[in-house]
Amino acid sequence: MNRFTIVHISDIDLTMDDNQRLATQPLQRIFDDLEDHQVAADLIVLSGDLLIGGDQQGYRQLHQYLQQQERRLQVTIQVLLGDRDDREAFNRGYLAVAHQPYYADKQVHQNMDFYFLDSKWELNKSAGWLDRPQLDWLNKNLHLAPRRRAFIFLHHPLDAPALRDMR
Description:
This protein is of the alpha/beta class.
């Protein structure tokens, strides 16, 4: 089997500076460290709590910044939302879509499927909730390739007490 290296980073909690520019220094240090140590990542996952108090402009700047880092590091960078992220601002700024109820994405690398799900907290639901449409989407995709390895990324742990209600 081929080696596949994933760098998984969570809770980066970036902010906007006084001039409304994205303050990327904490994340930039990590990316520089990967380059300095010659970590040949195949995939980088930023799993939530991306931007504290982020607005559409901040998420747009984050998207542009991560595209630059993808080119520089020659790796795919995948993001997903955490409970401190603003879903509507993310949709409009990062994804450039008006509205979607949740974020779900799938990537295929070699013989592996990678699923990225939005487990963002909603009022009246436990932290780390996945709605029925998300679970249906995941179930459908898992059944399309039952013999491939599947890796599921969420901001919240899959087996956390808050997610036990979904069993």
